[in-house]
Amino acid sequence: MVNLGLLISQSTLLELFFLVIIFLILYPFVFYPISLHIISFFYPEYTVFDKSYKPFITLIITAYNEEKVILKKLNNICSLNYPKNKIDVIICSDGSNDSTENIVNDFIKNTKLSDYSRFILFNIYDKLGKTNAQNKAVKIAKGEILVFSDANSMLEKNSISNLVNFFSDLSVGYVSGRLTYSNVDENPISSVEDKYWNFDIRIRNMESKISSIVGGNGAIYAIRKKCYFELPNLLSHDGFMPTKVFVNGFKAKFAQSSVAYEKVSNNVNDEFKRKVRMQRGQPFK
Question: How wide is the angle at C-alpha 256 spanned by C-alphas 211 and 115, nearest 5°?
Answer without folding.
Answer: 115
